[in-house]
Batch of 3 targets.
Target 1
Amino acid sequence: MSAETRSPALRHVLGHLLTPLLMCLGMGLAYLGAFHAPTPHDLRVDIVGSGPTTQVLAQTLHDKSAGALDVRTVADRETAVSALRDQSTYGAYIPGARPELLVASASSDTSAMAVEKAFTKVAAGQDAPLKITDVAPVSDGDPTGQGIFFLLVALSIGSYASVAVIGGAGAVLPLRIRALLATGMSLIVSLIGTVFAGPMFHLVDRGLGGIWAMSWLYSAGILLIGVGLHTFLRRWTTLGVMVLFVMLNFTSSGGIYRPELQPGFFAALHAFWNGAGFVEGVRSHVYFDGNALGEHLLVLGLWFLAGVAAMALAGLAEARRRPAAAVPAVPAVPTGAGSMAEEEREQEVEEAVGV
């Protein structure tokens, strides 16, 4: 290869190497920023009881935590259990000669551990062993409670990898065919995820029908958004989809740490990002009798509608470009002078299919 042809080829490769460098930078910033130092902030816990002693204990613990805990009092054990089961609190301490701590590990195992750590110190200060009662335990097949998060990872990878294939190799197909492929792949991915959750790994012991429905809605949203964006982003689609559905998605899902243990940016994303909608929706459906399930389904539904909108916009953009597609045939290039033109044409083809 001559120096004249080697230089453009090198520039071409260096331009494409920018993508993995940006992925490395983004993944490091997202994962380390979200997970490297989980610290409680405004983690809601309750002290069970009434009277001056209970109030003093609650206020003292609240003040000493310096913002880590949001300590309140509730009248009795039943009220505390109810608050745990509707996920408005993450621990309830019952003081006395035999103190007891109520937690709900299905809501978040790491949050339950943070609560246990705080109240073990409280009980130790009273020279009393602490009894821990889990009012909403996870299934036997998911002892850490993080299996739902790894199910999310599997669904996400299957979905955004399909975007790369449909958007790249399928770029020459009509948009309606790509939409059908996206819908079909989301169905297959969701069925695979349901098999993982139930028969294969027993992450849950009930509610498989609902898990499949949420898996499909989640996967379809990613596929439709990704395929729609490919019309505009071309070879940057993989990076764009990874930012949306890996970097910002996994870190804000609450599958490892809930927002009460994360920096404010990721805690804010948890309120409306699709991964959080899936994780919290599955938890609600399987462990908490559908508490707030409608809110989580709304999040997933809105992301699905965003995918439909992305496909509609892609259709309009492609319709406008279509008249310009009739390009005159390229004249033959004399031997010895065509290497540069041939490489330029190859690069155009690559960009057209999203390579």
Target 2
Amino acid sequence: MTALRSFVARRLLLGVVQTVAVVLLVFALTEALPGDAAVALAGDDPDPARIAAIREAMHLDRPAWERLGDWAVGLLHGDFGTSLASGRPVSQYIADGFGPTLLLAALTVALLVPVGFGLGVLAARHEGRLIDRLISSVTLAVYAVPEFALGVLLVTVFALQLGWLPPTAVGFGTDLLGHPAALVLPVLVLLSRPVCSLARLMRAGMIDALASPYVSQARRYGVTGARIRYTHALPNALAPAAQQLARTVDWLLSGVVVVEALYVIPGLGTVLLNAVAERDVPVVQGLAVVFGVLTVALNLGADLVAHRLAPRAGVAA
């Protein structure tokens, strides 16, 4: 218990440091952007009065350290600032886009876990046989296809030629659960590459675990094959797979810009694209902080889960 508490304390401290670093990095990168944000937002033929008003609204007339302090204090209270394009709170943009993105991520993970883990265990159980070679070949081929190309292909076949599914989510708004057909193609695209990487990682982990000395010792004691696979080998193979799953969830919540843009899903990726197009710096900053904190939190959780499943892996951490 002492070793576990020490490991958790170190990881929590590291997570706090990483979160602070994310906030500082986002602010520094925004400050390093070329040109004057107020002039860019004022339009092609800027009026000096409008430029001055924008600079005042963005607090650009104040020193950078003061603006950083005010922004950091606001973040601690859940205040991400105000949109320059619409005057709405940035937190409202995040709340509006988080629902569709979370729905896509939840559906993808709900399918990813059983399919990815199941394929990996099945391939490891039949190592070197036809099933193993087939799973490895198919997962490698699917992983090699870019998401955008796969998305266009699925739209062409299932939406335009066969007419089975809607090509985009246009007209459905944020009520995607009420129109499940609009979710099929985006979820398939999001599922394609993660399920391949998770299955291959799980296969490698299971093969290594089954070849380990403690599994050989269990066989000598007469332990059955199923108990060896699922009681002794599986927990140790799950540790790296859990970390990969956390990275996948992070990608689903923070990096689905291509899929949301292709299928016109009103999620966080679409909010980010619109904010970049409108040069709405506070919205971009708020989303960057949210994405960074999600990455830190998910990787912290994955480290704790991996340490719980395989404590020996955390000795050097």
Target 3
Amino acid sequence: MSINTLARVFTPHGNIVYTPNDFRQTLRIVFAGMIALSISSFYNTTYGVFYVVYPIMLLSLVPVFNRHVAKQFVFSASINCVEMVIIIGYLSQWPVIMTLVVFGLYVMRFRFMSQGALFLFGSMGVVCQSVMLNFMSYPSTNWHTLLFSNIEASVMAVCLSALMHFLLPDVEPRKPPPLIEKNAARVRHESLLSGTVATLIFVVFQISDLSDSLSALMAGVLILFPMHYRGAVMSSLWRVVGVVLGCLYILVMQLLLYDHTSHMVLMMPLIGLGLAFGARLHVMEKVGAGVGFASITTIGIMFGQNMHPDGDLVFSDLYRIVSVTVALVATLTLVFLVHLILNCFEPTRYVIEPPKDV
């Protein structure tokens, strides 16, 4: 479905579902991403990836804004900072205990996501926890800068979301997403499956020196959001396509500008065009973290990490594509194995119940 949608983007006509609300959401993502990138570049923030990716994720995954959304987003970041200080600051000398605590936090957050009401709180907690655990595992990391950057970026994302919804409100009210009824066994399966694989990813990134593999880490974590095997397979395919599109676009953009990429006046329109392409594809897909979402987050991650034109851009792009592909294959293998193990037991068996007759 996503590949067909991708092909239709290049056609001027066709049966494409693209409502006025979708157009407004596209504009909100583009303008918020450009503003966040401008602020991050102007102040030369150390962890610019937080400042750029958080607004993009919030406006992409949540098409509405209200007090409930704002509280979940900011509260998740605040709680996460406290947890990271306890885990890395006090439990790092006991690796087994630290790993068990991390596993418990992952399972709790994926359980929130599975139950639905606190999906944003759980999903942002998973992303924050994964990224911050990776950064804080390196001795050169300044904890104070990292923690305050996380909080500041979360507050800025909420403020940008509120501003964009005020300036570009929806044309018509949105219908709430349909509720998915899940039995207790399915909730346990989804939370244990995703929590176990996320913990294994955490262990790999703790043991190995993968400081330049943030895209691979994000890819491995984000494909767990469907919280079941088939969903992870589809999400991984969409992620690979989106990452390739984002990397190729950035490479072409940098090659066109050559040594003029230091001029923000020249860079911003092209960055906005790339975000617009990915955002438009994202709102047309209507599958959550699909090809378009992977494309815009790739652009946000790469520019948020202050990528400069004097580096080896070809190697940088190819490294991201290869590392993401390897991470997705390894993650899918773990998801499949854990899925089989959990399905051996009745309390954690993944079974979709047929709809009840009205």
